[in-house]
């Protein structure tokens, strides 16, 4: 019996675009005569993977540079949190026990949405005091709902530029409406999206979240620990959540990390405390 090993373990761009194998070859002169950069099927071939990587890196890099975005604060957090006002309406409308339970959880977690919104506004208010673009810090998120929406929203409502790095998902993620015109980017590859989270990041602010948020957090911690990037503020908002989910002290006791690694992290409870850590770190005044 032949082993049934897959050719690859990823959803390729060909799969995502739903291109049939018959569309993946230049079967006639009309196809072969196309400019390579105009030929979607050619660009989706396995052999052009490196080119697609380069393009996903280059496009946001150029556009952010053109708009004077030199420094960002990257905000992570759950897609599932809603504002206090939305959660309160859910409680009022809940009828079944399942709806009541969901609404109560939403109300509990709404504190993080509102905090992220406040944090975005604090950063935007600082930027308003700066005459030079090179001195400003802009909110950057994954561009989706929940905490990402909240942080973008706080900055956007305060009149600041705000950035979203969206990614294609099986359940398509739509960019939230609080990303500035021309600063909403779409990625297919998580790796390239993560690079843009970090390239301009001067601080990381992580609110409670699931697999994605924790994955992004640990990637940042690893980059700093291994000195692939310069040390920067890594701030966890919501001490009770983080201490319940991740026991850094146990990791320390087991000897898999050192005290210096634990010291990379600051745990705070409020948006103001998170901003104070960044303001003091860079002596922003």
Automatic annotation (TrEMBL):
GO terms for cellular component: cytosol
Known EC number: 3.2.2.4
GO molecular function terms listed in the Swiss-Prot or TrEMBL record: AMP nucleosidase activity
InterPro entries found in the cross-reference section: LOG_fam, LOG_family_nucleotidases
Catalysis performed (reactions): AMP + H2O = D-ribose 5-phosphate + adenine
Superkingdom, taxonomy of origin: Bacteria
Record PANTHER family: CYTOKININ RIBOSIDE 5'-MONOPHOSPHATE PHOSPHORIBOHYDROLASE (PTHR43393), LYSINE DECARBOXYLASE-LIKE PROTEIN (PTHR43393:SF3)
Name of the protein this chain belongs to: AMP nucleosidase
Organism whose genome encodes this protein: Polynucleobacter meluiroseus
């Amino acid at each position: 019996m032949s082993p049934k090993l897959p050719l690859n373990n990823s959803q390729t761009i060909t799969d995502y675009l739903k291109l049939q194998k018959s569309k993946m070859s230049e079967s006639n002169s009309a196809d072969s005569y196309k400019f390579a950069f105009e030929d979607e099927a050619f660009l989706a071939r396995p052999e052009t993977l490196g080119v697609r990587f380069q393009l996903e890196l280059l496009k946001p890099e150029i556009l952010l540079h053109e708009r004077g975005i030199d420094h960002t604060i990257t905000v992570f957090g759950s897609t599932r949190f809603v504002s206090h006002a939305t959660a309160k309406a859910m409680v009022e409308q809940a009828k079944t026990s399942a709806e009541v339970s969901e609404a109560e959880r939403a109300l509990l977690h709404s504190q993080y949405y509102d905090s992220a919104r406040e944090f975005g506004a604090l950063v935007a208010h600082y930027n308003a005091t700066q005459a030079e673009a090179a001195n400003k810090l802009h909110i950057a998120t994954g561009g989706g709902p929940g905490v990402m929406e909240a942080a973008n929203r706080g900055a956007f409502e305060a009149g600041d530029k705000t950035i979203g790095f969206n990614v294609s998902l099986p359940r398509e993620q739509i960019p939230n409406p609080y990303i500035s015109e021309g600063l909403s980017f779409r990625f297919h590859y998580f790796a390239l999206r993560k690079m843009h989270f970090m390239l301009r990041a001067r601080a990381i602010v992580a609110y409670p979240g699931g697999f994605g948020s924790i994955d992004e957090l640990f990637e940042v911690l690893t980059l700093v620990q291994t000195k692939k990037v310069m040390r920067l503020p890594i701030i966890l908002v919501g001490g009770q959540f983080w201490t319940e989910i991740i026991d850094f002290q146990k990791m320390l006791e087991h000897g898999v990390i050192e005290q210096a690694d634990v010291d990379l992290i600051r745990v705070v409870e409020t948006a103001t405390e998170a901003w104070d850590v960044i303001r003091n770190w860079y002596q922003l005044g």
